[in-house]
Amino acid sequence: MMDITTVLIAFALAMDSFSVSIAYGLANKTFTMGDALKLGIFFGAFQAIMPVVGWFAGIHVLDLISGFDHWIVFGLLAFIGCRMIYESVRAESTKLLDSPRLGLLLILSVATSIDALVVGLGFSFLRISIFVPAVLIGVVAFLLSFLGVYLGRKVGGFLHSRVEILGGLILIAIGIRVLVEHLGII
Fold first, then answer.
1. DSSP state letter for 130
2. How far apart are CA 159 and CA 167, in angstroms?
3. For residues 25 and 151, is the Cβ–Cβ distance under 8 A?
4. Pairwise CA distance, residues 45 & 156, whole Å
5. Disulfide check for 18: which of 1, 96, 144, 175 has CB 3.0–4.6 Å away?
6. What is the chain's mean pLDDT, rounded?
7. Which residue has the higher pLDDT, 112 or 130?
8. DSSP assignment letter at 66
9. What per-residue confidence (pLDDT) applies to 85?
10. Over 50: is that where the pLDDT of 121 sits?
């Protein structure tokens, strides 16, 4: 199943990876095409794998929480969205980054894909198949991460916090939509 909500979720989840990629491009002017490709592959792969992990975890607890799962989905998406907005507006120091090393790539990939794990959990609660959303989330994260390196060189300082705010607002809006639909308000 792929609809506009799945596409919006994919873009919202990719905002963390996109922001980190922009920071890499902004901080390291000697970034190569290989570095951008490596960053995109790691971020895309983790963004695709984590919702699957969350989905499988959710399937095992679905019967226990089926009466209030829509509240959990709303709460998780609202929390993630608010956290993204908060982190985008708080003052952060940016340190210069070298070419991405394996250890750092793994840490950044996990850190930027925790939200995808939670979204996969939400998909299981909503009984949505995970295959198409996971692939879409991974592809979008790959493309935006790859693109983010080059945008970081050009306009990274301007875009950095704004993309995370947009991603956070999208996730909050989707959480509200899920809650409203399940409560039968609209």
1. S
2. 12
3. yes
4. 23
5. 144
6. 80
7. 130
8. T
9. 81
10. yes
The residue type found at 156 is: G
Q: Tokens at residue 87, please?
A: 């982190």
Place of tokens 């940016």: 94
Report the C-alpha gap between 145 and 148 in whole angstroms: 5
The single-letter code of the amino acid at 173 is: A
Burial class (CB in 10 A: 0-12, 13-18, 19+), 176: middle
- For residue 106, give Cα distances in angstroms to 28, 38, 141: 19, 11, 15
CB 141 within 8 A of CB 3: no
| Reported confidence tier of residue 139, pLDDT bands at 50, 70, 90 | very high
Those residues whose C-beta lies under 8 Å from the C-beta of residue 140, and which sit 6 or more positions away, are 7, 10, 11, 13, 14, 47
The single-letter code of the amino acid at 56 is F
